[in-house]
UniProtKB/TrEMBL annotation:
One of its GO terms (molecular function) is oxidoreductase activity. PANTHER family: NAD(P)H NITROREDUCTASE RV3131-RELATED, NADPH NITROREDUCTASE. This is Nitroreductase family protein.
Length: 279
């Protein structure tokens, strides 16, 4: 174990908080290893939902989300995390933490306290618009993680039943779906310069940062990758919003929750004991 390292009880609390990270279809495709070198994150490929590249991408994005949740929880517990991504040069390990004992960081405490409150909210949102300063803040936070963020134009998407989103980049014609309405919120897209595993892990981290920031600002949110499985729509979105210079990885719908809307119950999570090997 490194000289300074959180005790087992603190680590368990941190990993328990991190387990509330969002993941595609709540698959929670990650595994933690605590050994004499510290804390490490691996993907659990057995929990991948299918065999397509999009399913692989969902695993990496979800692992990025839990990595960021864990980093936030560690910082709030007084352990400043330095993350080494792909520390074995791509042989399989996604990340290892180097930890330095320090005072809890206020920004991390705020994000950590948002973790238990965050939900994927697929409902209608309130009608008020997002303040430009809020969008600017989210954009800056994504950029700090090396991820680009932009707003998907209102006439390019529509919210269907159960919070599903359809991107409308088909040929112009009579059968185009109507543009999204005021209660649909804003659709943000996170994109990366490269389209590789490293970028997807980063995009997952940025997704977590965006969702927790939104929750801390009392905004409802929902991450989505299902609409990006349509390769043509994904490419058209990249051209429309990023001039073809970045690869869309995740969509996030954000907006004010409807006043008085009932709280959503938390989804089930695997216990820390099932996702962690202690050696
Ligand atoms: C990478 C990723 C992709 C996701 N894609 C979708 C999606 O396409 N549609 C959707 O409704 N939810 C999507 N979600 C949200 C998950 O379904 C949700 O995180 C999971 O069910 C756990 O629920 P919670 O976020 O409320 O804790 C996605 C989440 C992640 C991290």
């Amino acid at each position: 174990m490194p000289n300074a390292f959180p005790d087992a009880a603190t680590l368990r609390t941190v990993l328990d908080l991190a387990s509330w990270a969002p993941s595609a279809q709540n698959a929670q495709p990650w595994h933690w290893l605590v050994d004499s070198d510290g804390l490490h994150l691996d993907a659990d490929w057995d929990r991948r939902l299918g065999d397509t590249p999009a399913d692989r991408s969902d695993v990496l994005l979800s692992c990025g989300a839990v990595l960021h949740h864990c980093a936030v929880a560690l910082a709030a517990a007084g352990w400043h995390p330095r993350i080494r991504r792909f520390p074995d040069g791509g042989a399989g390990r996604l990340a290892s933490f180097e930890l330095i004992e320090s005072s809890p960081v206020a920004a991390s405490v705020e994000l950590a306290s948002a973790i238990p409150r965050r939900r994927s909210d697929r409902r209608e949102y309130g009608e008020s618009a997002l303040a430009p300063a809020t969008l600017e803040l989210l954009l800056i936070r994504a950029a700090r993680l090396g991820v680009q963020m932009s707003v998907v134009p209102k006439d390019r998407w529509v919210r269907l039943g159960e919070g599903r989103i359809e991107l409308s980049y088909g040929p112009v014609g009579d059968d185009q779906p109507p543009p999204s309405g005021p209660g649909d919120g804003v659709l943000l897209v996170l994109a990366t310069e490269a389209d590789d595993d490293r970028s997807r892990l980063r995009a997952g981290e940025a997704t977590s940062d965006l969702l927790l920031s939104a929750t801390a600002l009392d905004l409802a949110s929902c991450p989505l990758t299902e609409p990006l499985r349509d390769a043509r729509a994904r490419l058209a979105l990249a051209c429309d919003v990023f001039d073809g210079e970045a690869h869309p990885q995740v969509l996030v719908r954000v907006g004010p929750a409807i006043v008085g809307a009932p709280e959503l119950p938390p989804g089930p999570r695997r216990p820390v004991a099932a996702t962690t090997t202690w050696t």
